Amino acid sequence: MSKEYAILPCNGLDKCAGCAAGELAIRLSEETGSEIICPVFYRVADTRYNRIAKEKPLLVIDGCASRCASKLAAEKGLKIVKKVNISEEAKSAGIALKTDSLRLGETEKLLIGNLADRLKTEEDTAESGQETSFFPAQLTYDTYQKDKFMFRIPEEEAFFFNENDVWAYVSGGKARIGVTDYVQQSLSDIMFFTAPNVGAEISQFDEVGSLESGKAVFEIVSPVSGTVTRVNEDLLNEPERINQNPYEQGWIAEIELADFEEDKGLLYDFNGYFPIMKRKVDEFHV
Amino acid sequence: MSGETFMGVPREKIDWSPRIDYNKCNDCMECVKFCPHKVYEVREEGGQRLVVKNPENCVVFCRACGKACGVDAISFPNKSETTAHIKQVRKEMEANE
Ligand code: SF4
Ligand code: SF4
Question: What is the CATH number of domain B5-79?
C-alpha cells in the first residue's frame, strides 16, 4: 500500500531545486492520496492546512540548504514525520541540478521519480529495541545555571566528552553517545534527527548523524571510533526527547569500540569538560 | 580569543577552518549568519565580500557552516590528518616538559 502524506514543499520558484521540490509534491499527490500544503498561502491562512497536517503524517520537502519548508514547519509547530532535501538527494545520487534554467530536465525528472517511488513505500520508523542494562538507570548531575537555562553534566566516571559537546558513556568495549545540554539548549526545540547507519564504521571526529532545529543544523561529531550497532529509534518520531534529557531518553547511538585507549587521548572527563562548557555558555549563550 | 587551546594544544598550531571556493560562492552570507564564533567577516568594499577573518576562532572538527551553504562552496581540511597532527604535537609537548 502506498503512503499518504500531508506534504509541505519548498516552492522556491527561482531555483531549480525549488521547482523540483514542487514537482515531487505534485507527483506524490497524484499517485497517492497525499495533500499539498502551499507554503505561500500557509503563511496568510493556516486553518485548513493545520487540519491536513494533523490528519496525515507530515512530509517536508526542502529544496536547498536554506530549509525554508522545515523552518516554516517549525514556526507553525508542526511535527515532521519525514523529510527530504532535493539538493542533498541530488548530490548523493551524483546529479548536478540545472543552474541555467528553471525547467526540469530529464535528469531532474528521473531523480523526482526515484524519490517519489521511495517515499511511497518507505516505512515510517521501526519499533524500538529492548533496553539494555549496560547503561545506568539513574545518573547524577552537576549543573551550571545561566539565567533561566540549566546545563547538566553527568558526573559518572564512565562519561567522556569531546570539545564538540558530544559525550560517550564507555563500558565493556561499547559506548553510548549523545549530545550535551549545551547543544540542546543552543539549538532549542529539536525537530529532526538524522540517524547514522547501523553498521557504519566511524572514526573519531567523523559525523554520526545530525540534529536540526528552527535555528540551525548540528552535526554530531563522534567522540569515539568504531562500528555503529544501534541507534535510538525513538528519536526519529520524538526528537524532543533530546531537549528533555540528552543523556537519558535522548541518547543518540551505540558504538562497538575500535580502539578506545587511542580515542581517550583526545577526550575530556567530567572535570575537564565542565569548565569548557561553562566558558562556552558564558560566551555564546543568549 | 588568543591563547586558546584545543585538547591542550595551542589553537594556532592546528590548521582547521573553512575554505571558500569563490568560484561557487554567491555571497548569500548564510554561513556568516550561521556561525556564532566570528570566524567570517563581510567586507563592504573591494573585491571579495566574504572573508575567513579569524580562522582560529573556528571550532576544531566543526563543519557545521558547510551545511548551511546552498551551493556547497565550503570545505574543510582532512580530518584524520588533523587528528594525527594534534596527537603529534601533544607528544612533542610532553617530551619537552
Ligand atoms: S565550522 Fe563551525 S565554528 Fe567553524 S566557521 Fe563553520 S560554523 Fe563556525
Ligand atoms: S553560504 Fe556558501 S554561498 Fe553563501 S556566502 Fe557562505 S560560502 Fe558563499
Answer: 3.30.70.20
